[in-house]
Amino acid sequence: MGEDRENILRTVQSHYNDYGARAKQLSDEGKKIIGYVCSFVPIEIIEASGAIPFRVRGDIHEPVTIGDTLLETIVCPYYRSCFDLSLKGKYAFLSGLVIPHGCDSMVRSYSVWSYSLPYSYFHFVNIPSVCVESSFEFFREELNTFRKSLEKFLGRPIAEDDLAQAIRRRNAYREKVKALYGLRSEEPPLISGTELTQVLTVCGGLPVDEAMSLIDKVLAGIEERKGSHRKKGPRILIDGACLDNIELIKLVEELGGHVVADTICNGARDQLPKTNEEEDPIAALCERYLDKVNCPKTYRENRSGTFEGDIASRFGDIGRYAREFRVDGAILYLYRYCDPFGFEVPARKAYYKSINVPLLHLEDVYSAGTVGQLRTRIQAFLEMIG
To answer: What confidence tens digit (pLDDT) does each residue in 350-359 have?
Structure first.
């Protein structure tokens, strides 16, 4: 069984290193692959259409070159990397691309993507920035517009049953992801943060059924680790935006820490919230993406009337994960020019202080060249809390 476990983890690493290879193979077989760049894209609608959603990612080892001739350098470095790789043909197998109103960089550069890339299909999903009744009404119409645009592009209707089935499949996937996260509650965790990040990143480039099969194999392999003697260390939560590479997490774990929880865009923030299967499919997707995905771009009314009550409401998921996974400290990892998260730094720091979780705030530029600088600060932080 140990060999099987190592084989599946090697398979995950191979898929991670050659991200997009399976999607290209499916494209060569005639499948429609629709790319997306943010957790706000309702991928269930893409799946209901018969197409395969594919999460476009960047590469911290690849310098941004062509992309900087078309996008200003004050644009989010992660987003610029995604654009740069697309221009270089990394994602030439895509049939189309969907960009949501996830931040101003996405909104203002949508036209640059659509003018610069040869994909047959582009769509912009306009997502409200507030959670009030009229927002859900607007978003419902926006999702219906998205649905119709896919129907027109693919030449087939998307029935209510198609949507309901896609929601059930994606919820089943999220349940398996939850089981993966549960392995981190052990002391020490049964799955490393590096391994989990690789699995989730790989799943973003696979059809949902293949992603579920992969997770099942990982879960079966990891079971053997129970009872093994592994070194304990400080339990760390990673907070921030999209972290689609393993370098930061790998560094923390090389220095003796265990990354046991996260609130990042391609992690718990996106992977765990489920869609209500009992509601009208479009209404349920509206609720899931607008209300359950807890992103700083969404303004939520301060119903408590106090700053303390407001941050407890806005960042309560952080506190829940900190308790559930018994974290000893947290790292708030942000990219330079990420304004939505940048504006929230003081409030997030105040919240971590209120729940007595030591915090290290790091600002980075989405480049492998900064790992050495991060090492010194992370090592000092782990020594402080250890």
So the answer is: 999 999 999 9
Q: What share of the chain is helix, strand, coil (3-state, %, to 5)?
A: 55, 10, 35
Report in angstroms the alpha-carbon separations of 316 from 58, 71, 305, 313.
29, 35, 16, 5
pTM for this predicted structure: 0.94
pLDDT digits (tens, 9 = 90+) for 83-116: 999 999 999 999 999 999 999 889 989 999 999 9
Decide: 41 and 56 in contact? Cβ < 8 Å: no
List the strands of the sheet with 359-364, edge to edge.
Answer: 258-263, 235-240, 329-335, 359-364
E strand spans, the chain: 33-36, 52-55, 96-100, 121-125, 235-240, 258-263, 329-335, 359-364
71 and 80 Cβ atoms separated by less than 8 Å:
yes
Whether a cis peptide bond, with omega within 30° of 0, leads into 53 is no
- Three-class DSSP category at 98: strand
Helix axes 247-254, 371-385, angle to 10 degrees: 40
Helix count and strand count (H, E) for the chain: 16, 8
Residue that is written with structure tokens 């480049």 in the block: 367
Which domains, from first to last, does the chain contain? Answer: 18-158 (3.40.50.11890)
Q: Which two tokens stand for residue 240?
A: 């921030």
**H helix or E strand, kind and range, residue 222:** helix 208-222
Q: What is the DSSP letter of 292?
A: I
**Could you read off the pLDDT of 137-150 as tens digits, one per residue?**
999 999 999 999 99
Tokens of 206: 């696979």
341, 296 in Cβ contact below 8 A?
Answer: yes
- For residue 356, the 8-state DSSP code is T
